[in-house]
Amino acid sequence: MKKDIIIAGVGGQGILSIASVLGYTAVKAGLELKQSEVHGMSQRGGDVQSHLRISDKEIYSDLIPQGLADLIVSVEPMESLRYLPWLCENGWLITNSIPFINTIKYPDIELLLNEINNFKNHILIDAEDIAKKSASARSANMVMLGATSPFLGLTNEQLEDGIAGIFGRKGEKIVQQNIDAFRAGKKFAEENVNKILITK
Amino acid sequence: MEKLHLLGDEAIAQGAIDGGISGIYAYPGTPSTEILEYVQHSKEAAKRNIHATWSANEKTAMEAALGMSYTGKRAMVCMKHVGLNVAADAFVNSAITGANGGLVVVVADDPSMHSSQNEQDSRFYGQFALTPIFEPSNQQEAYYMSYEGFDFSEKFGVPVLLRLTTRLAHSRSGVVRYEMKNQNEVKIPSNPTQFVLLPSIARKQYKTLLNKQNEFEEESENSKFNIYFDGQDNSLGIIACGIAFNYLLENFQGKCPYPVLKISQYPIPRKKIEKIINETQKILVLEDGYPIVENLLKGFLGKNLNITGRLDGTVPRDGELNPNIVAKAIGRPINTYFQVPDVVAGRPPSLCSGCPHIDSFNVLNEALKNYSKGRVFSDIGCYTLAALPPFNSVNSCVDMGASITMAKGAADAGLVPAIAVIGDSTFSHSGITGLLDCVNENSNVKVLILDNDTTGMTGGQDSPASGKIENICKGIGVDPEHVRIINPLKKFDDVNLKIYLEEFEYNGVSVIIPQRECIQTIGKNIKTKQTEVKK
Prior knowledge:
Largest sheet of chain B: 6 strands, mixed
Helix content of chain A: 40-55%
Shape of chain B: globular
Order of helices and strands of chain A: EHEEEHEHEHHHH
Distance between the termini of chain B: 30 Å
CATH class of chain A: Alpha Beta
Oligomer: heterodimer
Low-confidence stretches of chain A: none
Largest interface: A-B, 57 and 56 residues
């Protein structure tokens, strides 16, 4: 078992909450883990990414080589495309559709969504809307984790335990909100993955 | 024992706690900040009463750590690579005084300049100061080098340098802990003049340090961190330093066909180097930083030696390493299937929405409208981002504190008024002495101290001069009438503009202090309070 995952977003969007839950879950499952993070200047609204590597064998590099990532998970549509050279031939691009616009050079959102829609293995999800409807607007990152979950090789029980482990100190209500968001994201992905696979 | 899930920085911190430190000293700087932060948040460290408060700068941190070592207790000091420039006087001389209690100097370098103004390699400083250097290749080694580093330091009576780079500092992996050691008792040096570097004593001490060099090399030769791996294909031999070793193994999934010498402890192990040179036809040196080992091997006369690396372009001369750069250097294929679409735009970091600096710079730009351009000297901090659009406000960013002193030099040259823009934390780090220079000559310098009451760029650590900035300025002799406190909010733009313009008219030292808390720390403080209420 080996999963190389790039988690992408903009500094301040909290992508490390996704990385933390995945990392925590993998370690609990007895897997090897390397999780590279971006700290410092880019956290001020710049592009940020985390390289997350999970395996049942020894992992050497903290960074994923280009062409080897199984998944790109992005909480922002333009950021999802920035890391395409890292994705493997049959890799999946899973991204939130809502742009985070903090630069005057931000491209036309339609052009970005076209690029994503034309990419063969993709899941485009309005994580904020699903989060609002299923839990709380602040749980969009757990919707993204849910949308990624069918590809991870970790069970739902393991991942939900991971959410409880990471958010536990914030109280039962927050844990439940995040689990609800996770389940809603997972449901969306499962329905849409099937659609994509059937049309292919 | 259960594995902990730690950043390289955190592994070093845990290693130091378990290794029996009594204190850790540092000034925040990416990628080193998380070391001291981890100790601050550690319950075990609190229980053991380990000192873990931020220092005013890297030099004061280094000296405090040396003072703790003097008493016989174990101390760690941490900084980013450019911080070692600030601490260099203390660091280089600490090698000559030697250590009493174990002293580990941790320096996190930032090749590729993710959050820095250069990518200098701290191994040069270790070589220069004649100290042993440890360079971990993974989180477990980082833990262990920290844990054992204090014993090593005490065994040889010398501070040791622990050098890592950004990717290890900020990458998490499983780490196994060792048994916690007790802290040392106070035991001042048996030689009462060991730390007195008067020339006559320093000469002796320096000879002592020189005499230890052979032992350091012997230690490197037998170090469990410097390992020679045989390979069946002798057409190439690879010397991989620190984290470069991981990138190499990644490319072969652990089974490299060539002989490999992994180096994680310096001075370089001469016999092992000779072995790999004798047994292979060509050498490739992989280092995450400057070509230090490569240069040592090639030197001035080695032009025709078959040694490749950064100097001959096999590896790019600048920037950090990664698995792909290493793949290219050893001729392994890189398969990329997709390109970045043209529509993707860059996303440089920017000031946060609601940041007080935004209001400060808007008013500054307005106030400077009728002056010629190019007179704003800035410093190291979030506000340096005002060099970018939409502000295009600042004309320099060089090193901590340079805003005030560069503005002074420019004013001396006739560019008046010269403006300096510096943050509260940077001001306390290295701005105060420069302001004293200005006061002593009543230079026509306008100093804006953007006081957001935190060390913002590194994530909101305590600011050393919190609540004291105004009195510091007055205390070193700035005319109190020209120390102006303002509130940088849009609704006060007109009032603030008037104050800026009044001070620009004044021919002398002015200090304007826009005071408003960092928008990030406000958010964090609210969250902390909410969590406390829930508890």
